[in-house]
Structures are given as structure tokens and as C-alpha cells.
Amino acid sequence: MAGTPTYATPPGFLGVTRQDATGGIGIAGIPMDIGTTNRAGTRDGPRAIRQASRMLVDGAHPGSWVDPARLPLADLGDFELALGDIQGSLVLIEQQAAGLDHLVALGGEHGVTLPLLRALRKRLGAPLGLLVFDAHVDTWADNFGQAYAHGSVFYHAINEGLVDPRRMIQLGIRSPVQREVWDWTLAQGVTVVTAQAFHEGGPQAVAEQARQVLGTAPAYLSFDIDALDPAFAPGTGTPEIGGLASWQAQAVLRRLGGVDFRGMDVVEVAPAYDHGEITALAAASVVWEYLCRA
User: Fold this and answer.
1) Coil, strand or helix: which one is 226?
2) How many CB atoms within 10 Å of residue 246?
3) CA dist., res. 249 & res. 6, Å (int)
4) Residue 88 parent element (H or E)
5) In whole numbers, what is the pLDDT of the chain averaged over residues?
6) How far is 114 from 127, CA to CA, in rounded Å?
7) For residues 170 and 134, is the Cβ–Cβ distance under 8 A?
8) pLDDT class of 2 with cuts at 50, 70, 90
9) Are 268 and 225 in contact (CB under 8 A)?
10) C-alpha span between 157 and 117 (Å, rounded)
11) How buried is 282 (Cβ within 10 angstroms: 0-12 exposed, 13-18 middle, 19+ buried)?
12) Cα-flanking dihedrals φ and ψ of residue 211, to 5°?
């Protein structure tokens, strides 16, 4: 046996040792875990995702034939946070993301997406298109009285003009939700594809719909791991039955080549509830699929 065995791969995502993201793609962990509303534990998500990514270091993508090892990737470590302070942490995250050309973030709770969108919106000077995989609409004005919890991310993103809701599509939605929250979301122009509609339509039709909604202008991808059914991703704080299978999400991602994504995140991995690293591996594979798009 020649070469470095998988278990000895360097600790960066996909074994990346480069730490300078200038002119390339930066991988950063954001272990924020203070705005969750059910089970905590996403602070350990970045570490678990990096560890699980060791499974993905031994070759190119079998569809696009892109080899991430040949991409200008850098693992920047974890962002600094303000301990116990949601608003302070959002400010710090935005500041650290501001100077990065293309950021791939490993969460952490879904609240981290808001400052990442703020930073990217300022850099691009226009609202973004947005593709969201999620079990929840995350357009609540607040969560149990907390205005900036992980379920209010897109309420703020829409109201702040960070995204164009007419170019926003959510896939896998299925959680309980108040009718007024649902109606508000649709009234903004957001396209919502429920998990049931996804299952009935199939990945190819959903991918085509996503491409049509996103269009050709810059867009962002946010993947909440609870979009997947708990059978495929038990390691998360707010699991909802009836979700997507891993292969369904993978099939959509593989049909999004050419979409002008300017960044992405995968969030809500809580390793304490995982089994055999399957949730962490799913999250790592989502990032791998994103990097390997043709």
C-alpha cells in the first residue's frame, strides 16, 4: 500500500493543508450554536464534517470528473465568535467573511447564513438568488421570542434585501408551520417545494425548476442537513420525518452545473445525535458535490 492512508489524512477539509484562500475557495468552520431551538450541539459540526471528509479524498467525481484536490482550496480553520452573544457573533462572522472571494462554510446552526449573505450582498452590490435545502421555511419573525434564532434567517434576509425572493427556492419543506408564516413566505415570491412534492416530482424536475428560479445571476446555496430524512441524517437538532433521501439531494446538486453560485454553507450537523458518522458524511458529501460541479 502506497501513499497516505485515509485515517492519516491531514485534519483540514478533504485533507487540505493550504490556509491562504486568496484567489480561490475558502473552507471555514462556523461553530455557532446559541440560536438553536431544540437540541443543541451544532458547535461540533465543523469538526465532524472535516473528519468525515476523509472518505472523499481518493479520486475525482464520477460524473463531472472534477478532482477537488486540483482546485484552489484552503481550509481557514474556524471563525471567531462572541461567546453567548448572537448579535455579536453575527457581526464577527460578517467581518471575517467580507474579504473572502468564495466561501464554503461548515456550520454551526442555520443562523450563520444571515451574516454570510450580508457580506456577500455588500461585495456583489445586488440581491442574490438563493437555493435552500431545509425541512423548515426559516421565515419566522422570531423563534420563541428570539429575533435572530436559526428559524428566522430568511425572514431577515428577505427584509434586508440580501436575496431576491423571486429568485429564491426552498426544497424539502415539511415541518409544522403557522399559516401566517407560510402565507407571508409565498407572498414575498419565494418558491416552496415541499418534501412530498419533491418525492412526487423527482430530482430531475426539481432541479430544472431550481435552475429556472435561480436564473443566470449570482446565487447562493444553503443546505440545512435536516432537509434529509432522519434515516439519512439523524445527527441534527430539529429532525423531521418524511424528508429527502441522500441520493435525491445528490441528484439535484449534480444537475446544477453552470449555476452562478458565489458561495454556500452546510449547517445544523449535531454529531452527538449521529450514528456511524452518516450525518457528517452526508454534509461533507454535499460540499464535495458543490465543489465538483462541472
Assistant:
1) helix
2) 17
3) 26
4) helix 86-97
5) 95
6) 13
7) yes
8) low
9) yes
10) 7
11) buried
12) -60, -40
